[in-house]
Specification:
This protein has 225 residues and is of the alpha/beta class. It has 8 helices and 13 strands. The strands form 4 sheets. A 5-stranded parallel beta sheet has the order 2-1-3-6-7, sandwiched between helices. A 4-stranded antiparallel beta sheet has the order 8-9-10-11, covered by helices on one side. A two-stranded antiparallel ribbon has the order 4-5. A hairpin with a 2-residue loop joins strand 4 and strand 5. Helix 3 packs parallel to helix 4 and helix 6 (152-163) packs across helix 8 (190-205). The radius of gyration is 18 Å and the shape is globular. The modification 4-aspartylphosphate is found at residue 51.
Length: 225
């Protein structure tokens, strides 16, 4: 899952990035309004953690833009203790939740997870697709109730595909979503095929169905049946 963290307090920004990265998220960071605006225009994020007060603009304007464009990014507001009106306005704009400084990183992580569940899987603790069961809490996968051993990237690939069933996903979008914005520097995306091929083999060897359909010259679709 890919997260954008928008926070002008550099020390706090680093703390959030390190903590959420250890939790297995792909994290991108912005320390001001202009950086965040540029990233939101260029890339898609599952969740954006946005500080309302930024040195060169308002986080509320970022939220407003996301909602005007109907972008389905989940939004967690970071606010100061005395900014009740801003928090309420942010929620009215369409933010999913807020957290007030100072906060525990574990609480922020819990709120991010809750937003992702509501946004992507209608609040379900487990994601079930036919014989495949995914538990995002402990990042485990089972097929017909038998545990499936996956690498971190194989798990992230499967999670990404299931979260985007029936959507055409290009190799570029898969690489950018799972490896971060620096993937733009890659010469090619052949390594995507290797990871997908390994994932397919493990699912089939475990008695599962290969729901992944290759759209030649374009990318991949994860089908319902």
């Amino acid at each position: 899952m890919k997260i954008l963290i928008v926070e002008d307090e550099i020390e706090l920004l680093k703390e959030i990035e390190v903590f959420l990265s250890k939790e297995g998220y792909i994290c991108e960071v912005s320390k001001n309004f202009n950086e965040a605006s540029e990233k939101l225009h260029m890339y898609h994020y599952d969740v954006a953690v946005i500080d309302i007060t930024l040195p060169d603009g308002s986080g509320l304007s970022l939220i407003q833009w996301l909602k005007q464009k109907n972008i389905d990014t989940g939004i967690l507001i970071i606010s100061a203790k005395n900014s009740l009106d801003d928090k309420l306005y942010g929620l009215d704009l369409g933010a999913d939740d807020y957290i007030t400084k100072p906060f525990y990183l574990a609480e922020l992580n819990a709120r991010v997870k809750a937003i992702a569940r509501r946004r992507m899987f209608k609040g379900s603790v487990e994601i079930i697709h036919n014989e495949i069961r995914i538990n995002p809490e402990n990042k485990s996968v089972s097929i017909n109730d038998n545990a499936l051993s996956l690498t971190k990237k194989e798990y992230e690939l499967l999670f990404f595909f299931v979260a985007n069933k029936k959507r055409l996903l290009t190799k570029e979008s898969i690489a950018e979503h799972l490896w971060g914005d620096n993937i733009d520097l890659a010469d090619n995306y052949d390594f995507i095929y290797t990871h997908i091929n390994n994932l397919r083999k493990k699912i089939l060897n475990a008695g599962g169905t290969d729901y992944l359909h290759t759209v030649y010259g374009m990318g991949y679709k994860y089908l319902e049946e």
